[in-house]
């Protein structure tokens, strides 16, 4: 307790107002995790746009004004993302921290390999994903001529997990390949439920069978097991070759890196796909408008409905689906709650403007919570309402959003910011679009009567796209 008092009374000039509670190590943790957005908005009201809160043994300085985000992002040397991310990821996924002395340049080279998620390679990923989705739809949804009921989140996971996995890691053509995929997905779902606890640094030993589940998942990615998957993507091949060059990494460490990449590629994509589909099915006018747009592009490319789910849209055509893109963005806006965190590497003064600056101490965290921007009524009118065409203006993607009459540089941030921005963002939107196009074009879909409206499960607030807080059943059948 005395330690806390000392910090409190020794607050230096220029440091933001501090709220710390009286319980050592815990501080304001409880209030924050109960409802981060409400908690932060109440502090913003009290202290203004920049304040520090003592949460779970850390001093976290929150920057709430979106116009100030860019200033934090620019201090790349003094406020680092990598060390923080590596610390959490290595413990969560079970590989040794990427220490520069032990693994020289590994971090930098991993980041360079992300180029395989963009540009020309994204064209290949788009095509492979298209083929995989067709194959999975044919196998999993054959001849659904009568209404079939299913829980919607489960439906999205069972189709999208496999499509994503096959596209990135390749196909196991051996007998039992599909059974193995179902096993991996089921393990993954169990691990994913425990993900927030692992990120919160709860020791894995205290989380029941999570340790053995993680071990099993990692084992799938041991070189001898990966060798049976054929036609893996360029990004996975590049990561394999790169990890092979570090002899200090044990086989299971390399496998744990591959497993971490699997989580990155589906952990947010699955809930994001669910929300995009859920909102469209809940809003028939939105579904009809998006359907029209898809029909239009199919007609313009001379394509007719094909019984084998063959729809061929290039990346450029997919990017041009403005209404579908807007509907996806709108579901990101409503359901993403990631926290962008950086760590001060030294004591220094962070300057925002000529007259605005704060002092930070080495080890302090600096954070944004973009959900407060996404739900800000000054930026988005009636922010609680789903408006599928919110991101369309004059038939083009709308990119001009304002606060206090000033245009915002960052107005939608489901993929993080600056150096830590998600390298898979283009592929993610691309795959959600392809999945929705097939569903919308081939199926009638309805939420089952009597289903209650689904809300957000805030247990992973701060970590990305939130999950639904209850199951929701819908029905689908092939269009006649
Ligand atoms: C809707 C889907 C997705 C969302 C919302 C999302 C969101 C994010 C966010 C917020 C981060 C930054 C984390 C931070 O700042 O701490 C991130 C990082 C990352 N994402 Fe995504 N992501 C998605 C899909 C994907 C996909 C499909 C891939 C790969 C195929 C991917 C690969 C990665 C990787 C590798 C990182 C770590 C980057 C680094 O090492 O700095 N993500 N993602």
TrEMBL record:
Transmembrane stretches, start-end: none
Protein name: Cytochrome P450 family 7 subfamily B member 1
A GO term, aspect molecular function: oxysterol 7-alpha-hydroxylase activity
Keyword set, alphabetical order: Endoplasmic reticulum, Heme, Iron, Lipid metabolism, Membrane, Metal-binding, Oxidoreductase, Steroid metabolism
Lineage: superkingdom: Eukaryota
UniProt binding sites for substrate: 91, 268
Family (UniProt): Belongs to the cytochrome P450 family.
Binding positions (heme): 422
Keyword Nucleus applies: no
Compartment(s) of residence: Endoplasmic reticulum membrane
Pathway: Lipid metabolism; bile acid biosynthesis
Keyword Iron applies: yes
GO-annotated biological processes: bile acid biosynthetic process; cholesterol homeostasis
Cofactor annotation: heme
Lineage of producing organism: Eukaryota, Metazoa, Chordata, Craniata, Vertebrata
One CC-aspect GO term: endoplasmic reticulum membrane
